[in-house]
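Continuing the series of single-chain predictions for the mutant panel. This is the parent chain; the variants come on the following pages.
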Amino acid sequence: MNTKNYSTLTRRYKFIISSLHSLYRVINSSFNMSDLIIHMTKLISGVLNTNSCMVVLLDNSKACAIYRCKVSAKKIYFFDKKTRITNRLEQRIINHTSSVFNSRILGIPIILDDIIGFIIVRRKLSQPCFDTLDQEFLITLAEQAGTGIRNLQLYEEQQKIILGSIKSLITVLDTRLPQGYVHSPYFSKLVTIIAKQMNLGEDQIKTLQYASMLHDAGKLDIPLEILTKTSKLTRKEFKIIKKHPIKGVQIIKHLDILKPIIPIILYHHERYDGKGYPSGLKGDKIPLGARIMALADAFEAMVYGRPYREKIDVKSAIEEIKKKSGTQFDPKVVDAFLKAVKLIKIKKYLKLIK
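Parent structure:
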């Protein structure tokens, strides 16, 4: 091998290694299957310099595609509806669980215990032919993709289990708590948009969404006569109310899959100035999720009202949030909230308020 060919081959191997790292990052930063398939297709198309690249994920029967993404002429075509496999090349890859390789087409099955999908790339006549190094590279990519898809499937199954557990707890909570304590259907959306404005990751946002559903779970253990009281609480009654974050943690602590939401539930009544409960935490010592939840919870309490306080209009509630920036609320969370209320349709809140 001459020096020029050796140098070219070395560059290609370095590029392959770099591309595998890129795929690994894509796999580990995707939290839903659609995003993963789209990002993988774009990456493979770019890395192999193809005219078209297609990634397909199969259903259990192997007769239908459940995800299909194609990148061609820099355009992305994505389908997530179940469609029957009729193309002969695709059927050949599935039926024989083997690669298709010629100078212009590469087709590689994605295999775990069985075939779960495939990748097909094409080049035009004006482009260089595919070689064995391209084939080996695509096989390696397919192996990485298979691992990523399986991990994401397991993650999605876990999310279904978590959501099922939460829904069961919410059913109990809604039948026990007075209507005045039940949050609007837009509460989780408000929490989510605030979190996105603060550039939180997908896993942090998902944890916040779950916490938004269960943050008042501890009120299950508060006497109804206290929860429904319309006059000012006595010192003893307020002391009982202040225990509900701790009681909420006691309810969910035995469910391992809900452990990430515990700090949010425990500290969502802390104040930025340290005058909250149950621990009197101050500033950044309060978990960020709890600071977000505290503001969103206070906003809904203001616009919907509670048995112990009259509701106020949305504009007044927003002004109240602004006034308490730096005292009750984290100024950064307040800034994110003010951006969030411009993005969501506040009129929906108004329609729900009776």
